[in-house]
Amino acid sequence: MEYISKIESPVGILTVSSDGENISGLWMEGQKYFARTLEKDAVEQNLPVFESVRQWLDCYFSGREPDFMPLLKPKGSPFQQSIWNILCEIPYGKTVSYGEIAKQYNAQNKEKQTSARAVGGAVGHNPISIIIPCHRVVGANGNLTGYAGGIDKKILLLQIETNNVQ
Q1: Residue 59 annotated as catalytic
Q2: Cβ atoms of residues 31 and 9 within 8 Å
Q3: Residue 71 in contact with residue 61, Cβ under 8 Å?
Q4: N or C, which terminus of the chain has less Cβ within 10 Å?
Q5: pLDDT digits (tens, 9 = 90+) for 8-25
Q6: Number of domains in the chain
């Protein structure tokens, strides 16, 4: 069984999904791939795990780095899971390029090499926006390339973290 909850935020209404213990999704209304991994029969319900996400988001949107992480269990392929794990290592307020993530993945997986383009596909399909910080990934020259939630939301999230993104 999968459960959902709606949360208002500075980037619009967020839909959060959970198996009851772990967060499996967090999407911005209208984003590309919205609720792609969400079960069709998900039930809206108030659960302790959703309160944990609300607290994390309240801290984040207040401009502070949260000092805890809700339990996460995103649905995706082993390759996607590897990339999402790397995303979780990007420090608050910092950005990395798709190419840098590919290099890190390649260093960890000598037998399976990947490209920046493949990384981009995995980053774009991240089902747990904001908490798994795909907004911290930029193009090779530091340019703010695509974001499933919209480039305006990517800029806002980076501004919250750094207060200097133009």
Answers
A1: no
A2: no
A3: no
A4: C
A5: 999 999 999 999 999 999
A6: 2
Catalytic residue (one of 53, 134, 158, 160): 134
Last residue of a domain, one of 61, 95, 111: 61
d(CA 64, CA 55): 12
Amino acid sitting at position 144: L
From residue 150, how far is each of 11, 53, 81, 111, 137 by CA, in Å? Answer: 10, 22, 22, 34, 13
By residue count, the chain amounts to: 166
Asked if residues 34 and 73 have their Cβ atoms less than 8 Å apart, the reply is no
Rounded CA Rg of the chain: 15
pLDDT on residue 100: 96
**137 and 102 in one domain?**
yes
Q: Which residue has the tokens 């939301």?
A: 153
Number of Cβ within 10 Å of residue 28's Cβ equals 20
Q: The domain spanning residue 142 has which CATH number?
A: 1.10.10.10
Question: Quick check: is 70 in a domain?
Answer: no
